[in-house]
Amino acid sequence: MSTTPSQEDYIETIWILIQDKGYARVTDIADRLGINNASVSKMIQKLDEDGLLVYERYRGLNLTEEGYSLGLQLSERHRTLEEFLRSMGMTNSHEINKTVEGIEHYFSADALERIENLMSFIAENPEWWDKFSNWSNGKK
Question: Is residue 50 scored above 70 in pLDDT?
């Protein structure tokens, strides 16, 4: 199933809320995404129709198995990209999050795997990282 960047943001947010609080309410989702409750309700209905979550009015919502799996995948993608940017020397958390939010929806599984491989290589070859850091710092 193909999802839009907006749908991915919702699923990732719902997944994180469920992990953190054990549940996700419309108001929690709206607060986290900085949008109004009506917009959240509309998207929840769409995600319910698409089989990514089950929503019962006044009872809350739960991710389906497919929705949970997608939420986990999206959360891992976000974490990997954050770690990559930190490893490249970015330190401002707000800037890192803003950058990841801007690019994460456009990374293929192959591109993400290559970033993970690069990060593993760097961890296993710290002398390579030292050379890169020295080279990079000399460019500034």
Answer: yes
